[in-house]
Amino acid sequence: MPESTTIRPRSKLFSRSGLFRRKSFEGPDEAGPGGLPRTMGLWQLVSLSLGGLVGAGVFSLAGVVANQQAGPGVMISFLIAIIASSAAALCYAEFAGLIPRAGSAYTYSYAALGEIAGWLIGWDLLLEYTAIVAVVAIAVSGYLSYVVEQVGLDLPSWMLGAPGTGPGHRVDLFAALLCLLLAFVLSRGSKQSARFETALVVIKLAIVALVVVAGAFHISAGNFSPFLPYGIGGAVAGAATTFFAVYGYDAMTAAAEESVEAKRLLPKAIIVSLAIAAVIYLLVSIVLVGMQRYDQIDVHSPFSSALAAVGLAGLGTVVAVGGILGITTSAFANMLAVSRIWFAMSRDGLLPRYFARTHPRRRVPTRVIWPVGIGSAVIAGFLPIKEAADLTNIGILAAFIVVSIAVVVLRRTRPDLPRSFRTPWVPFVPLVGVAFAVWLIANLDALTWLRFAAWMVLGLVVYAVFGFRNSVENPERKEP
């Protein structure tokens, strides 16, 4: 009688063994061979989150929204944005405590909604985070150029901006070099890069505190009237702009696998960092519009103009330095995030596993970090900031929607899972996050939608050709 053989049934495409197969919620508590070492404590995680949360919003957006949309009501704009962001943050906190592994929204959606959802969000975030790094680097370059001018140096025009941004501009050299510098720092190891980020965040917060305290002695009550010159609608519209300043915690969750006691500390880090950022943004708004009338604020250098208006022009250079540090920490957090998402997708087989190998000594994914650094440097060096910024918004909002929905779905499908943190008032809180993100996406221009659609179509092609068959969750996959 012939020996029987086991024949595995072919996967059905639209099933739990096909497009909707799911990543396990179980994962190692400690890094195995080739994994990421757990070295970050609570305050390093908080610093990484604050690196993304407190940046352009303090040094730029507050003044723009006050001048053009909300007047003194900019503090209401920030309050609305923080409430909306908090709804998504609470959903991220539940997942961070449930699945403390690299990948952030990619990993969460893969485990809760299935592989195709995880792939689409992961592919989306690869572009979004890389573009954010480039946008932030371009903004830092602008502050650096200002400081260089202040000390009397005359730099050649070819290195001061991307083609088309000014006479003689060929490349934004400062921005490109910053991207490469951040890649170098990240490649040194998790512990060293976390110390670098923490040091910059501490200096940045000290500068913000100095500016707020100095400005507080020059607040004039008359500058708060009229409080809503553009009506309540202006303050609500301003919330859409300020929202993009208060979602940096998502980048920190991508480094979940490098946190000690991750299930306990990650949710706490998200909540603590968002609370600190909320206080900072509200104080900054009050001081800014209190020092100078909203319609006289210079949108290009809000705090510098406001400080000059009250006789503190000497602090302008300090603000510029704070801007450089503040925005650099945001670039760092986002570059770390995209490198960890790429690493996680490669480890899961959806992208070539070549990229899932860590450096033998430093134990960081250098095979991913350097391509991200070079890619962001090319975007930063040769694209104007508006074109680079257009690549960023829709993808982050899509991730917020998916994570919020996934919390609701998982409460129904897996109520038994041990959760170290539970999002309160489900489904109300997640639905608030979804509604706000949908509203913002609906107001994006057609070109942004077109670029997003083109990138996602490319992603589906890559998944169909490579990811689906090479996924570690594919029951028919042949081990190399």
UniProtKB/TrEMBL annotation:
<feature type="transmembrane region" description="Helical">
    <location>
        <begin position="42"/>
        <end position="66"/>
    </location>
</feature>
<feature type="transmembrane region" description="Helical">
    <location>
        <begin position="364"/>
        <end position="385"/>
    </location>
</feature>
<feature type="transmembrane region" description="Helical">
    <location>
        <begin position="310"/>
        <end position="343"/>
    </location>
</feature>
<feature type="transmembrane region" description="Helical">
    <location>
        <begin position="423"/>
        <end position="442"/>
    </location>
</feature>
<feature type="transmembrane region" description="Helical">
    <location>
        <begin position="129"/>
        <end position="148"/>
    </location>
</feature>
<dbReference type="GO" id="GO:0015171">
    <property type="term" value="F:amino acid transmembrane transporter activity"/>
</dbReference>
<feature type="transmembrane region" description="Helical">
    <location>
        <begin position="78"/>
        <end position="99"/>
    </location>
</feature>
<dbReference type="Pfam" id="PF13520">
    <property type="entry name" value="AA_permease_2"/>
</dbReference>
<dbReference type="InterPro" id="IPR002293">
    <property type="entry name" value="AA/rel_permease1"/>
</dbReference>
<keyword id="KW-0813">Transport</keyword>
<feature type="transmembrane region" description="Helical">
    <location>
        <begin position="391"/>
        <end position="411"/>
    </location>
</feature>
<feature type="transmembrane region" description="Helical">
    <location>
        <begin position="227"/>
        <end position="249"/>
    </location>
</feature>
<dbReference type="GO" id="GO:0016020">
    <property type="term" value="C:membrane"/>
</dbReference>
<protein>
    <submittedName>
        <fullName>Basic amino acid/polyamine antiporter, APA family</fullName>
    </submittedName>
</protein>
<feature type="transmembrane region" description="Helical">
    <location>
        <begin position="269"/>
        <end position="290"/>
    </location>
</feature>
<keyword id="KW-0812">Transmembrane</keyword>
<feature type="transmembrane region" description="Helical">
    <location>
        <begin position="199"/>
        <end position="221"/>
    </location>
</feature>
<keyword id="KW-0472">Membrane</keyword>
<keyword id="KW-1133">Transmembrane helix</keyword>
<feature type="transmembrane region" description="Helical">
    <location>
        <begin position="168"/>
        <end position="187"/>
    </location>
</feature>
<feature type="transmembrane region" description="Helical">
    <location>
        <begin position="448"/>
        <end position="468"/>
    </location>
</feature>
